[in-house]
Amino acid sequence: xxxxxxxxxxxxxxxxxxxxxxxxxxxxxxxxxxxxxxxxxxxxxxxxxxxxxxxxxxxxxxxxxxxxxxxxxxxxxxxx
Length: 80
Known about the structure:
Elements: H1 2-15, H2 37-51, H3 57-60, H4 66-79
Helix pairs in contact: 1-2, 1-4
């Protein structure tokens, strides 16, 4: 699932350009000062576009970190 994480890295880097590459995998609203509601909406939009999928609104409340998004996307990729 390295491909999922590499693509997610690009999504995070585009929304949070000030993060160092090593900080991406630990990114969450608690660790990234710029992660507000607008940044979250932008991130979701970028992820949906990159992965060509729609994230149901009910799933969004749990997807508030790099790790949560990566796990979610990997599960969706496996379910194919």
